[in-house]
Specification:
The protein has one helix spanning 16-67; strands at 70-75, 80-85, 90-95, 102-104, 111-116, 127-133, 136-142, 148-150. By secondary structure, it is an alpha+beta fold.
Length: 151
């Protein structure tokens, strides 16, 4: 006896041709997706390091107002930063090289100090802090008054 399937009955699986077409489409779409993923990761790590330094600068400024002065010390190799109050207390510290981000300070110096006076104003010449990763670059410019501009 021959059994007849109802018209709306579903198949048990996919044919080899359907699977091959799906794999071909995935093979065509994979390289652009991976490239954009790498670019997104690079942008994330650069932004993260840039914002971390901006946060440290803001913390140094507030510590200076509260303590009568503060210093942010940045080191290029390995990239890190530390905020120290006028009383000598460490207010904050952060590693800045996560994901392979390189830190370049003004005039190629290995370290730089940004000092803030009791009014929260900078006591240094302007600084440019560059963050680089995989050919991309971001920077922070700290004015002589301690203001921060992202570029």
């Amino acid at each position: 006896m021959h059994q007849v399937k109802p018209a709306g009955a579903a198949r048990a699986g996919y044919s080899i041709i359907e699977i091959a077409v799906l794999l071909a489409i995935l093979a065509v779409l994979a390289p652009p997706l991976l490239t954009s993923t790498v670019r997104l990761r690079t942008s994330f790590y650069l932004s993260r390091s840039q914002e971390e330094v901006a946060r440290l600068l803001a913390m140094a400024r507030w510590a200076a107002i509260g303590e009568g002065g503060a210093t942010l010390e940045l080191v290029a190799e390995p990239p890190w930063g530390i905020v120290v109050s006028a009383a000598g207390d460490t207010v904050a510290a952060a590693a800045l090289g996560e994901g392979g981000v390189a830190l370049q300070l003004s005039r190629g110096r290995p370290s730089a100090r940004v000092r803030y006076g009791p009014l929260g104003l900078g006591l240094v010449s302007s600084q440019t802090i560059r963050f680089t990763l995989a050919g991309e670059e971001r920077s922070l410019v700290v004015s002589s008054l301690g203001r921060v501009a992202r570029r």
